[in-house]
UniProtKB/TrEMBL annotation:
Keyword Transcription annotated: no
Source organism of the structure: freshwater metagenome
One GO MF term attached to the UniProt entry: nuclease activity
SUPFAM superfamilies: Ribonuclease H-like
Single GO cellular component term: cytosol
Claim: Nucleotidyltransferase is one of the keywords in the record: no
Residues in the signal sequence: none
SMART domains documented for this protein: YqgFc
Protein name as annotated: Unannotated protein
Stored NCBIfam families: RNAse_H_YqgF (TIGR00250)
Keywords: Cytoplasm, Hydrolase, Nuclease, Ribosome biogenesis
Higher taxonomy: unclassified sequences, metagenomes, ecological metagenomes
Cross-referenced Gene3D superfamilies: YqgF/RNase H-like domain
PANTHER family: POLYNUCLEOTIDYL TRANSFERASE, RIBONUCLEASE H-LIKE SUPERFAMILY PROTEIN (PTHR33317)
């Protein structure tokens, strides 16, 4: 079961993919935001086909207290539109602190700030996806949006 992980950003979309067993998440690529979300979603749909994934997990930027603020509401609206294009189930997963975690990992690897900016989004997507994969194997509830 191969799954795509998505970290939505205003300028870039980080993408990660799991291995075929659905156990390990790996950073895949960064999509620079296009002229519209539809263009971005078409690119994600292309990756769904190319990578032969059966589902997508999108990071949900909840507030630190677990409530859904403006960023989470915007992400949910985008996920709703994305589901009409990608052709596979789309799940959301709490992404609190994933970019912080991704940046910490990259800093530990002694990456310079400019190099980190180029890859942090896809590493954050891998952190989101890995967290979702781990939650599934532990029997935690997963929320489907489509």
């Amino acid at each position: 079961m191969r799954v795509l992980g998505i970290d939505l950003g205003s300028k870039r979309v980080g993408v990660a993919v799991s291995d075929r067993s659905g156990t390990i998440a790996t950073p895949l690529c960064v999509i620079e935001r296009g002229t519209s979300q539809r263009v971005d979603h078409n690119e994600i749909a292309r990756l769904v086909q190319e990578e032969e994934v059966v589902a997508i997990v999108v990071g949900l930027p909840l507030n630190m207290d677990g409530t859904a603020g403006k960023a989470a509401e915007a992400a949910l609206r985008e996920v709703e539109r994305m589901t009409t294009v990608v052709g596979v189930p789309v799940y959301v997963h709490d992404e609190r602190l994933t970019t912080v975690e991704a940046d910490r990992v990259l800093m530990e690897q002694k990456m310079r700030a400019q190099a980190r900016r180029r890859v942090v989004d896809k590493v954050a997507a891998a952190v989101i996806l890995q967290s979702w994969l781990d939650a599934r194997t532990s029997g935690a509830q997963v929320e489907e949006q489509s």
